[in-house]
Each structure stands twice: as structure tokens, then as C-alpha cells.
Specification:
There is one protein chain. With 380 residues, the protein is α+β, with helices and mostly antiparallel strands. The protein has helices at residues 9-13, 17-30, 52-78, 239-253, 291-322, 337-351, 355-363, 365-376, and strands at 97-101, 110-118, 137-148, 162-170, 174-175, 192-200, 204-212, 282-286, 327-328. β1 (97-101) and β2 (110-118) form a beta hairpin. It is globular and about 60 Å long. The two termini are 29 Å apart.
Length: 380
């Protein structure tokens, strides 16, 4: 399952025995992974060598499918920056993209990776005075992995791979005091936004949308980690937005007596990953004949609603920072639990990243390590 990678989904995909077994079987049947004589190639199953009529049909389906992936990506980025803000991208040129030939497919078929990252957010209308370090978002980054045809269209077959990962990191230094330090307030543990859409060989699709907590949530008795108040995912002044998120989540993942949920629960979450899931996680596995349509319609709608709420939260926090209702603490404060929570998250992901073998196989060790450590999960 080394392809279900670049986001939260792969924590589950690689620790689930069921998924691992399915991938092992798929590997044995179709030689989807690199052959012994080619460390940087993926072998696509022989059925890709079909006649031209089938190629045309496949390309039409591919066009529909790639629009599905691209529209997720573009919708998220358009919330953060305009078309004129391309210079804000912070990914080093040598890491922005990479290509590896898909051995066994039509000549010119490649496995293409595209990486993006920004740390400035003009559309959030940060501090109008232009003061540094007043932005409530600190990092946005995405990774898109596609199997592409010789004409650069997404090549869709049951044995090709497509991954979209989109993550937003809020600043860990925001506190609820209106001063220049944190003496009169506690740090706000704003969640990380994580979205993953993963297609694996064997018509397996994994989807996870979540507001990922960086601080432990309260136990069933409703007592938060400080032992003083009921725990919630959002800070108290933004609970109306948490209620909105709860309603959206219920629409997609809660069933009633008359119908099944729009997105069935994807199964148990491994113990080591639970701390990075909120009660509002949309986590599903799709493998039926309607899976692609479900991603293109139901998941697409859920993605828009989730990121809209997240950006509504970030805008509200940004406005409160600009108005002096919230402050920004010292970036070197060793007692900041939110900073520690994000650092723990990043370290966990760097250390346990199952994408590493796949990225190394496709694009080489140096590029893979640089992308993982410097772009996807960089140090604070």
C-alpha cells in the first residue's frame, strides 16, 4: 500500500491489515511495483495495451476523473491566493515536480508528482499595517500524484494510482489575551485542515477530510486537558462554527432509519493515529462500481463545505487578531502546548511516513527525503 501516502489517509491505509493484504494480492497479480531491473519504474498491468477504440474511451473517463482531482486542488488554492500570487510559492524549484516512467504502459506514460507550498495568504487580509507574523495561517501545502498518458491526461485504469493531499497549518502562537504576550490568555489550539483523496490499484478509493486536533480532546466526561472546562475542538468564541461543522459531518456520515450514510465509515482507526482525528472526520473507503462518481459528486460537495468552514474559522480568527482581540505569543515560548502539539504531529509524520519507499523508488532517495522533510512536514 505504499502509494496511499501523502496525508492522513495513509496512516490508516498502511496500518490496516485488510488494506495491506489487498495491496499485496494486487501486487502479486499485476506487478504494479518496480521490476528488479528498474528501481524507478512502475509496471502497469498488461491490459493497458488495448486497442485505439478502448484508448479513446479510457481517455474520456480519464478526463472526467482528472477534473475531479484538479477541481479539489484548485478550489482549495483559490481560497488562499489569486492567480497573480504565484510568486508566493515557497517550494524549491528542484522539488516542485518530478516524473518517473511507467514501465509496461504506452511509451510516454509517466507517474508525475506536483508539489506546492505557500506561507503568505493575501486573501485572508492579514494585518493591514503589514506587520510581520500576524497571519493566522502559517503554511499551506499540497501534493498531487498522477499516472499520466503520453498526452499528459490522467490515465485511469483499475491498476493506476492517483493521490491528492491538501493540508493547512494554522499558527500555533495565537492566544486569547489582547496583549503582546501570553500572560493574560491561553494559546488557541486551532486544528489542522487535512484532505486526502487516494485511488489505489484494484478500484480502491480512500477519502479523509478532517479538522485534525493538535491538542488532546476531553474525555467522555467533557473535561478538557487542563482539567478546568469542557473540551471542544474549536476555541469557545468560535463554537458556532464547530456546530456548523458538526451539522455538515452528520449529513454525510450519520445514517438514519431510512437510508445508509452518504459516505459510509471507513473502518476502525489504528490506536496510534486516533489522536490526529477529530469527532468530525469524514473517513470512507469506496470500491463499488459507483466509487468514482461518488468521489466526483458527494466527496466533492463535502470537500467544499469542509474547507469553507475552515476558511470561515481562519477569517474570523484573523479578524480578531487584526482587531486586537487575540494576540500572538513569542515564537520561542517553550511552554506553548499548541506549538508542542504541532511539533509532535510533524515529527510523527516524518518518522512514520510510509510514502518514503514509494517516493524513493520513483524519484530517488535525495528528492524523496527533501520533499518529506522540507516541504510536506517541515520543522517549525
Amino acid at each position: 500500500a505504499a502509494i496511499a501516502t501523502i496525508g492522513l489517509v495513509y496512516i490508516i491505509a498502511f496500518t490496516s491489515a485488510e488494506t495491506a493484504l489487498a495491496f499485496t494480492n494486487a501486487r502479486a497479480r499485476s506487478s504494479i511495483f518496480a521490476s528488479p531491473d528498474s528501481e524507478k519504474s512502475i509496471i502497469i498491468s498488461p491490459h493497458l495495451q488495448h486497442d485505439r477504440a478502448k484508448q479513446s474511451s479510457s481517455r474520456n473517463r480519464s478526463s472526467t476523473r482528472i477534473l475531479s482531482y484538479r477541481k479539489f486542488h484548485d478550489y482549495g488554492w483559490n481560497k488562499l491566493m489569486s492567480e497573480n500570487d504565484t510568486e508566493l510559492d515557497t517550494v524549491p524549484e528542484e522539488l516542485t515536480s518530478n516524473t518517473s516512467p511507467a514501465k509496461g504502459a504506452l511509451p510516454g506514460t509517466n507517474i508525475v508528482a506536483n508539489i506546492r507550498s505557500i506561507s503568505q495568504f493575501p486573501l485572508l487580509a492579514a494585518d493591514k499595517k503589514g506587520t510581520d507574523n500576524h497571519e493566522v495561517l502559517r503554511l499551506a501545502r499540497s501534493a498531487l500524484l498522477e499516472t499520466q498518458s503520453p498526452t499528459s491526461e490522467a490515465l485511469i485504469t483499475p491498476m493506476t494510482v492517483h493521490v491528492l493531499n491538501f493540508v493547512l497549518f494554522p499558527s500555533p502562537h495565537i492566544h486569547d489575551g489582547n496583549c503582546n504576550d501570553n500572560e493574560n490568555g491561553e494559546y488557541l489550539g486551532l486544528p489542522i485542515f487535512g484532505a486526502d483523496i487516494v485511488s489505489l490499484p484494484g478500484n480502491k478509493h480512500l477519502v479523509a477530510l478532517d479538522f485534525q486536533p493538535v491538542l488532546p480532546l476531553g474525555d467522555d466526561d467533557g473535561v478538557g486537558s487542563n482539567g478546568k472546562e469542557k473540551s471542544s475542538l474549536f476555541p469557545q468564541q468560535y463554537l458556532h462554527l464547530e456546530k456548523k461543522l458538526q451539522t455538515i459531518h452528520s449529513k454525510y456520515q450519520k445514517s438514519n432509519s431510512d437510508s445508509a450514510p452518504l459516505l459510509p465509515w471507513g473502518g476502525d482507526i489504528p490506536q496510534q493515529a486516533k489522536r490526529f482525528f477529530s469527532p468530525y472526520a469524514l473517513w470512507t473507503r469506496l470500491s463499488d462500481e459507483n466509487a468514482i462518481d461518488t468521489v466526483d459528486t458527494v466527496v466533492w460537495q463535502a470537500f467544499q463545505e469542509y474547507i469553507d468552514v475552515y476558511m470561515e474559522l481562519m477569517s474570523a480568527v484573523q479578524n480578531d487578531v487584526n482587531a486586537g482581540k487575540l494576540g500572538l505569543g513569542a515564537q520561542t515560548d517553550s511552554n506553548n502546548p499548541v506549538l508542542k502539539g504541532q511539533m509532535d504531529y510533524l515529527e510523527y509524520r516524518r518518522t512514520n511516513d510510509p510514502a518514503r519507499p514509494m517516493l524513493q523508488r520513483l524519484y530517488g532517495n535525495e528528492w524523496a527525503e527533501s520533499v518529506i522533510g522540507d516541504v510536506l512536514f517541515p520543522d517549525l
